[in-house]
Amino acid sequence: MSADATLPPARGRGGFLASRTALAVVIAAYTAYTLGPFLWLATMSVRTTGEISADHYAWPRPFHWEQFRIAWVDSDFATYFWNSTIVVVAAVAAVTLVGAAAAHALARYRFRGNRIIYGILFSSIIFPPQITLISLYQILVDYGLYNSLLGLTLVYVSLQLPLTVYLLEGFFARIPQDLFDAAKMDGYGDIEIFRRIVLPIGMPAIATTLILNFIQLWNEFLFAVVLITDPDKRTLPIGIRAFMGDHFQDIGMIAAGVMISVVPVILAYVFFSEKLIRGMTAGAVK
Amino acid sequence: MAVVQLSRICKRYGSGGPVVVDNVDVTVGDGEFMVLLGPSGCGKSTTLRMIAGLETISSGTLSINGRTMNDVPAKDRDIAMVFQSYALYPHMTVAENLAFGLKRRRTPSAEVERRVREAAAMLGLIPYLDRKPQALSGGQRQRVALGRAMVREPMVFLFDEPLSNLDAALRVNTRNELIKQHHRLASTMIYVTHDQVEAMTMGTRICVMNGGRVAQVGKPLDVYWNPADTFVARFLGAPPMNLFTVPVSGGDRVRTAAIETALTRWSPAVLAPLAAGEVVLGVRAEDLHLSVEAAGAAAAGRIRGRVFAVEPLGAETLLAVETEGGTECTARLPRDTRARVGEVVDLFFRPDAAFLFDPRSTAAVPALSRPGGDPGRAGGVH
Amino acid sequence: MAGSTALETEAAPLERAPAIGRVSDPRRASWLVLVVFLAPALVIYLGLTAYPAFRTIFDSLFTIEGSERSYVGLANYRDLLGDETFWIAVRNTFVWAFVAPILDVATGLLLALALYAGIPFSRFFRVAWFTPVLLSYVVVAILWMWIYNYDWGVVNEGLRAAGLDALTRSWLGDPNTALAALIVTHAWKWAGFNMVVCLAAIHALPSEVLEAAELDNCGWGAKLRYVIVPMLRPTLLNLYVLAFIGKMKVFDLVWIMTGGGPLWATETVSTYVYKRAFNWNTFDLGYPSAIATVWFGVVCAAVIVLNRVFKSRDRLEY
């Protein structure tokens, strides 16, 4: 009723409905465009390659859940999965601790060079990866860390450090100074204040960086493909790529492997979507 | 039990930087409630933070009970502080907040428990011990902040504008609560505020600060009735004291088109050097009246001006007047006062209610007697 | 102290050496504490970011084959000037970096506006539209290789169903369409990111301004054009810069989907560096280091220039 009243007279109800319908069609089309490929992938992951070749778009019938078991056991996706898990969990834990400590010092203390250190750490966010890639390859070879999960973990820590420091510094700087003054008067030292005040209060921001770092590293490809050659040490992204290189036609198995790599990320998103989005938007909203 | 002594305390940022606290010399007696009062930026909070050990002292000596404290870290000064923002730890319950300062000091846990309970009972916080600060009202948070200081049982309590985040009604309540706790604990307390009502009602003494310096220290009413200079005179009292820069005529009077009065409180010897030039004459708003009768029999002072605002406040009415010289002046009058904007009125006052200041130094000119409005003065006329 | 007054000179013996006084200021910390907090981050940064970056720049002056390195001065850079493939890669990357962000940001803004306008099931749509952001480039690449498949891909099947058989082609195999196909894929992944940022920015707009526009009897279109978009300008420009940086680095998608082919039609600087370093018959690491160094300079300069251009015109107050 009131909507009608505010409409310009020339348009009338028909125009209103038409524009509504057009909007609905566009929205439906775009949703199909984003979700469609993903659903297609999901259906193919529970069909055998033979069935897929017959018709690429048929509904799975029956659901071949054993595809996942085959991918997990026979196609080595379990190895890739656990390699990814070890590297990503270790790197995320390390970068969060190291980044939080640095962010706290930069956010809280006044000292000569504070802003310079922050600027240097932060500016490396824009570095194209090639500037470090070739040398990191040589350095890791020199130190016997090439083709090792430890080496890859260290590199991952360095990759995510700027973003982690940037996000946490912004949050820690907003913790009121009075809390630190009060804790100082109560006799708490700098390290203890970090452990007992900063980390608990900063938990929401820390959770945000955890989830963001997890997803970015879980999906990382370039450094993994350069620094890992041993099939037993492949992470999921390069494992899937290698599998596809060897079994280009085995679409059902590739789809199952891809689903295995996607599920943890989707789960993380389902449980922590607000935190994830907050982290992703933190730097971009002005 | 503690005496806090500040001698020639200075604070400057960097060498050659601005001096924010300049030669502060104050002694706070044992059990005293000392209020540091002044406008924002006057150095009162910095002074308090230097006492707390949260700022370094650039020069001068801070001592507590005779022991020099300049280099003693904050935690070893046996001082507790209540912050303007309360500084409650958001991730801890009320009980944990209260206990946090004690745990660090290796107080036995039974003793921690006892003190937390005692403070919580005293402040009516027992039902809230398991809540987090965000689930509390402003007044409750304020009480937790106070409780956190109390459980420490410190030698000295410091307060940094603890009431400024509360609404008006709660502020009055909490003010009374603090006065009560001061009487009970009988501890030395130092309290920073920019609110003159808090200073007047709570302080056993107040220390008015201006531009990093101490302008005046004294009991609240002493400072009110004998302001050391025009800054103190205007800072205490609402509306602020009316000031007029006028020449002295005939050696002992003021007589201009706008204002005339005899200067009865000053000896001719004091007035003589001023007679050649001008003086600053001060009259408090509550000493101005619309009729000679209302001002009292001795009223002979008069200010003439044009009304430019009438502000009925309910209990009283404020009349804002502009004199011929362009000076603005406010009178605090009975609530039934009727006046029109644009009207020219005469405001009367008793000559012995006037104050006199040196126009160059702004310091008060020493008087023979206390001002006429002072209820404490001997042989008053009513 | 020099310059002190007589009074202060008297108090001078009481002045504290800063080293001792520092203890009591909570905004200052001893060097030991700062080292404990900052050293791990700095060691990692210096060892795994700064040192490799400098080493790459240094290496660009050498020919490095295995453990043998010989100094060649600026020869690598001179070769680069005459390297046609490099210039094709630069052109492709620039096309991608300047054009594609407009697509990303515009799509993101429109999606955010649709959600802001209060369409039903907006929570579901937000999740649906955001999902591609979460997928790794490997997954996205595989999915879209299938979508572009000549025999059974969605695109060609759709065209055939519509009777447009003449338009079907090998989208990734045709030099005329390969780059565009990759750009569309990249935009598919990133539109959702731009959407959530725009949405957050719209929600962060002061509601008084939007209400004032309402009172001024602004319709939806006018409100959008004269109030929302101008106020979102800083966010949109910022998103553009972020997308630009992302595109300047683009590697994974290209490498997996086309490997830079066909006929260098999708070669980007990143894939070319990778090829020359790890996938070339000569195992020289010096030449790719020179490319990486040049590109490092180009990206930094472009970001600085873009920030300058945008910032100088965007001091919005509200």
Tell me what the structure shows.
The complex is a heterotrimer of chains A (286), B (382) and C (318). Chain A has helices at residues 2-6, 12-45, 49-54, 66-73, 77-108, 114-123, 130-142, 149-172, 177-185, 190-201, 203-218, 222-227, 236-246, 251-282. With 286 residues, chain A is mainly α. In chain A, helix 8 runs antiparallel to helix 11, helix 11 (203-218) packs antiparallel against helix 14 and helix 13 (236-246) packs antiparallel against helix 14. With 382 residues, chain B is an alpha+beta fold. Chain B has two domains: 4-225, Rossmann fold; 240-357, Nucleic acid-binding proteins (OB fold (Dihydrolipoamide Acetyltransferase, E2P)). Residues 377-382 of chain B have low confidence and may be disordered. By secondary structure, chain C is mainly alpha-helical. Chain C has a single domain (83-313), classed as MetI-like (MetI-like fold, Orthogonal Bundle). In chain C, helix 3 (31-59) crosses helix 14 (286-313), helix 6 crosses helix 9 (178-204) and helix 13 packs antiparallel against helix 14. Chain C starts with 5 loop residues before the first helix and ends in a 5-residue tail after the last helix. Chain A: Pfam families: BPD_transp_1. Chain A: Residues 81-272 form the ABC transmembrane type-1 domain.
